[in-house]
Amino acid sequence: MVFQIKPGVSIKDVRPETVLGMMIAGHVLLDHGVPFVLTSVTDGIHSAGSLHYSGLAFDFRLPSRYAGEMHGIDRRIRDELADVLGEEWDVVLEKDHLHIEFDPKITATKEA
User: Fold this and answer.
1) 18-47: per-residue pLDDT in tens?
2) Coarse DSSP helix, strand, coil percentages of the chain, rounded to the nearest 5 percent
3) What percent of the chain has pLDDT over 90?
4) pTM (2 decimals)?
5) Are 85 and 92 in contact (CB under 8 A)?
6) Domains in the chain, start-ordered, CATH in brackets?
């Protein structure tokens, strides 16, 4: 797997769920022939309430930066990651990166 961590990125206090998400994202990108370059985890400045601060989110470079095509591959990989990761994850295509966060929604449970 081609996996890189951009200089300055901190993984201090990252959660195990996030590590699993990174592993899955890395494999999906590898299947598309593009490197996985982690650009932010618990470092950086994010919006108030961001899951980055609790170690439950990460950002990585857009695949189009390496694939020789514009945003089509970014959307395809976003959709594939959303499908593979499932409903407990949010996969967001930002202007200059992909953002993934572990954010399970609270749902009402049926009682027997």
Assistant:
1) 999 999 999 999 998 899 999 999 988 888
2) 35, 20, 45
3) 63
4) 0.87
5) no
6) 3-102 (3.30.1380.10)
